[in-house]
Design brief:
Order of helices and strands: HHEEEEEEEEHE
Helix content: 10-25%
Number of helices: 3
Shape: elongated
Radius of gyration: 41 Å
Strand order of the largest sheet: 5-8-7-6-9
Oligomer: single chain
Distance between the termini: 138 Å
Largest sheet: 5 strands, antiparallel
Strand content: 15-25%
Structural class: alpha+beta
Number of strands: 9
Length: about 240
């Protein structure tokens, strides 16, 4: 009878049977990542340089223009002073705006419309003549009951009405001016400290053809002013156009 010794797999065979199948999952080393990081850095530098160049070009196109100062609202017909103006810069198409170097050309003129804080002024924003063509300024003195208790501010729009005199019972009222602009105001219907009755002095802009009738009604104390919406078209536009 013969015996054969058992066979055992060699250690090298065992290791070979466990070899991985397919591609490797090994992460790239830091040395392999360096070229990619360098390329990314170059791209970022180029983008930054391009952005800086664009900003520089746009900044070069900016210019200073005349704007309305902060916390300042200019009423239509109001005379413009240096304190009402400020400097503002803009880029791009700004045709028609008044350059800040020419702000003196605006000072002393009169606003043609409402101008609000930060708004840039154009040549059409102002006019040299305080009284537009076809217009006249009439001063009227009003007592209690002839105007709103709070009075008016410059630029307000009012309707001018003539009411019957106290010695004309049964008379009818008539509208003298459909819409007129208030230019100046002083005094008040009542004194805020003593509540005593006082007078309100108002300068209004009316058509030249109606100035005599308005002045006569004011002199006879039969004039009443009714405040209208600020966007109501006046009979005498600020630019004198019809």
């Amino acid at each position: 009878m013969s015996f054969s010794s058992p066979t055992h797999p060699s250690p090298s065979g065992a290791r070979g049977s466990k070899a991985p199948v397919g591609g490797s999952n090994r992460l790239p080393s830091s040395r392999e990542r360096r070229p990619a990081l360098a390329a990314l850095a170059v791209i970022l530098i180029l983008l930054g340089a391009a952005g800086s160049a664009l900003i520089a070009l746009r900044s070069g196109d900016r210019q200073d223009y005349v704007a309305v100062a902060a916390n300042t609202t200019i009423q239509p017909g109001q005379q413009i002073t240096a304190k009402m103006l400020a400097r503002g810069d803009l880029a791009g198409k700004t045709g028609g705006l008044v350059k800040y170097s020419e702000w003196k050309s605006v000072e002393g003129k009169y606003a043609t419309s409402y101008l609000y804080p930060g708004q840039y002024l154009s040549k059409d924003s102002v006019t040299r003549d305080r009284i537009p063509a076809g217009g006249a300024l009439v001063g009227v003195t009003l007592e209690g009951g002839r105007a709103p208790a709070g009075g008016f501010a410059g630029g307000a729009i009012v309707q001018v009405i003539q009411v019957p005199a106290a010695n004309q019972p049964g008379g009818t009222s008539s509208t003298l001016v459909t819409a007129a602009r208030v230019i100046d105001v002083s005094g008040g219907i009542s004194d805020k400290t003593t509540n005593a009755n006082t007078t309100l002095n108002v300068t209004i802009e009316v058509p030249t053809a109606k100035a005599v009738g308005v002045a006569s009604a004011a002199a006879s104390k039969t004039l009443v002013l009714v405040q209208l919406s600020a966007d109501t078209p006046t009979e005498v536009p600020i630019d004198g156009a019809r």
